[in-house]
């Protein structure tokens, strides 16, 4: 078996039950390296107070090079990359938060432009209004080249990721479990799309289950990787408000979408606004507050065929335009024009208003 390096020893240590970020930090302060922990005699552990005996037993029980080799093979099998805190690829925004993860597990890519990312969070049981707003904000951010971060949960998170992806943008999902697990399972295909166009990351070792206690902890990464956090919908006791607490501790800006005063899903966001969060009605409110200037070259251009471009440009030039007038302008048959309009609507570039009026978005 090949000689192991410190990174592999760290992955081993990180995988042991009971060893979270703080325990890992304490052990490294005492022993100096993960390799030293692997090789230390059990008597040395007993010299230090504050090291839980159950954790010591777990360390000793798993001090097997074959276990480490098996662990690394599983990580490789799932195409997972490991980023240490001192790595150049480690997200710059995370380095300066309290209690940054020692290790990040990643599928996909992390880029320099991700430093301007905006987080969109909210209720898992979002209303149709909340889902629409999350999708719209994410799609508008994507069109401006801004990366969207969320937690891949049901409701607001899912719609935020979809809004970014379906408008040519990058998005990052931060999970509360190991990357060999998709949670929720229904988002498996979404997870694959996020990997292709951005990244799926976690601070949890593979084979870590999506335990309820993991999610509040992972929220510090969602806010920590972002320049600002937009809360779309949240009840008074929503987990999204934990993300807000982390954001405020980290010096991030907090934004909230106003909602129906009779809806419990708006109680949290309306309260945030009363307490000083910036009220948001469109992404310009966010970009202006964060002083993010968009280079036109950076704006994501949605690819159009020659025919799609021609239809879009006529609508843009003469909007609002009735579909009958559009047919006359183009001198094409109705089936051809209708199919192209449908494609433009799916790409989020055209909207049909009542009365068959068309506008460019």
Automatic annotation (TrEMBL):
Residues 82-290 form the Smf/DprA SLOG domain. Signal peptide: none annotated. Belongs to the DprA/Smf family. It comes from Crassaminicella indica. InterPro entries: DprA (IPR003488), DprA_WH (IPR041614), DrpA_SLOG (IPR057666). It comes from the Bacteria. This is DNA-processing protein DprA. Residues 297-356 form the DprA winged helix domain. Pfam families: DNA_processg_A, WHD_DprA.
